[in-house]
Write a structure and sequence with these properties.
The complex is a heterodimer of chains A (227) and B (149). Chain A has two domains: 75 residues; 133 residues, Histidine kinase-like ATPase, C-terminal domain (Heat Shock Protein 90), CATH 3.30.565. With 227 residues, chain A is an alpha+beta fold. In chain A, helix 1 runs antiparallel to helix 2, helix 4 packs parallel to helix 5 and helix 5 packs antiparallel against helix 6. The two termini of chain A are 29 Å apart. Chain A is globular and about 65 Å long. Chain B is α+β, with helices and mostly antiparallel strands and 149 residues long. Chain B has one domain: GAF domain (Beta-Lactamase), CATH 3.30.450.40. In chain B, 36% of the residues lie in helices and 26% in strands. Chain B has a six-stranded antiparallel β-sheet, with helices on both faces. In chain B, helix 1 packs antiparallel against helix 5. Classes of the chains: A alpha+beta (227), B alpha+beta (149). Chains A and B meet through helix 2, helix 4 and helix 5 of A and helix 2 and helix 4 of B.
Chain lengths: 227, 149
């Protein structure tokens, strides 16, 4: 009889299943629902041109605008759920696109820099790193009280190093203020461990917070498989 | 659309709200004339200029929910008892508001804007205060009619 899987493997499996489901929902919304909404919008605009009564024309225009807003919101939702660029253009492109959305959502400017040549990483590792970056940026919006943050990707032969730091108020690492933020930080560390990497958080009151993510390319791990 | 923050009625209305209500923040978000984007045009009592870069997500946060529903909304003690997640409320996070009240602005019977007032402490806005915001919203609807369409 095969030995039961370890907790580590079970966690990996749960995260992997969750991500697959999220991706499926995002694809369905993007390729199914949103395409139909586009067709409806085009049809409505055609109908609008044939309407003579001014108040009915105005009504049709309002309907088109509402539909446009819905399409835009749906597009943002699908990108938030699972960025399509992550699979097609890679991690840095997906992060650039996310940072743009992040600035227009929270008003915080992100300076993103990538040094070295981007290496191929497995889909699961890519999504893990992306989720950890997303969580780090969400924490900046929630707690850092700052208008600027920096994200630096450094690619070398052995590993990827990502440094996310803000110039905000910082916090006392040992004194987590809320249960929620504690779980958020623990989840970031665990997620990176499962991907075979590491996440180091350091912070000082008044000096901001620094999050370093390391992902070795060749180290085998118990969790997610290699490319 | 011209920049609404340059318009006297907008500035006056926000100033009046600040004086009458003892609030710490007042802001106005309006949907762009072209395209579906809703952005913050003016804020008073703001701690930073994040609001200038924030585009209100339709149906998200206090402003987005008020515009999508066309109904006013109050938050008494953020982040307790809110709908959704804290990160769904960018203007409240950016301005560190604890309590807020938002009222929609209608143009041609369609909600296209929102006026938000807030304090950086726990507070429940009374019916009289809600009425003041409502009147300010109606007055802005009239004054901005020509600039929205």
């Amino acid at each position: 009889m095969k030995p039961l899987p370890s907790n580590h493997q079970i966690s990996s499996y749960i995260i992997q299943s969750q991500e697959e489901e999220i991706k499926r929902i995002a694809t369905e919304l993007h390729e199914g629902v949103n395409q139909n909404l586009y067709s409806l919008l085009t049809g409505l605009k055609v109908l609008e041109t044939g309407v003579i009564k001014p108040h009915m024309k105005m009504y049709a225009r309002e309907m088109s605008q509402l539909l446009e807003k819905t399409i835009q919101e749906m597009r943002m939702l699908t990108v938030e759920l699972h960025p399509p660029t992550l699979t097609t253009l890679g991690l840095v492109a997906a992060m650039k696109s996310y940072c743009k959305l992040y600035t227009s959502t929270f008003g915080i400017l992100i300076d993103l820099e990538s040094n070295g040549v981007e290496k191929p990483i497995s889909e699961l590792k890519k999504i893990s790193v992306f989720r950890v970056c997303q969580e780090a940026l969400a924490n900046i919006a929630k707690y850092a009280d700052t208008s600027n943050a920096k994200v630096v990707f450094t690619w070398n032969e052995e590993k990827l190093h990502i440094h996310i730091y803000d110039f905000g108020r910082g916090f006392q690492i040992n004194e987590q203020q809320t249960e929620h933020s504690f779980f958020g930080i623990a989840a970031m560390k665990e997620r990176m461990l499962l991907a075979g990497g590491e996440c180091i958080i350091s912070s000082k009151i008044g000096e901001g917070t620094s999050i370093e993510i390391f992902l070795p390319f060749f180290e085998s791990c118990e969790g997610f498989g290699e490319t | 659309m011209i920049d609404l923050d340059e318009l006297k009625p907008v500035v006056e209305t926000c100033n009046q709200l600040m004086n009458k209500m003892n609030i710490e923040f007042a802001g106005l978000a309006i949907q762009n004339k072209t395209g579906p984007d809703i952005r913050w045009h003016y804020a008073l009592g703001n701690l930073n200029d994040k609001y200038k870069r924030i585009t209100v997500r339709y149906g998200k946060g206090i402003a987005g929910k008020v515009i999508s529903s066309g109904s006013p909304m109050m938050i008494v003690d953020f982040p307790h008892n809110i709908l959704g997640k804290t990160i769904d409320y960018p203007i409240i996070l950016a301005e560190k508001l604890i309590s807020s009240y938002a009222f929609p602005l209608f143009f041609n019977a369609v909600p296209k804007g929102v006026i938000v007032v807030g304090k950086r402490m726990k507070y429940s806005f009374s019916e009289d205060e809600q009425e003041i915001v409502k009147e300010a919203a109606h007055s802005l609807e009239e004054k901005l009619q020509g600039f929205i369409f």
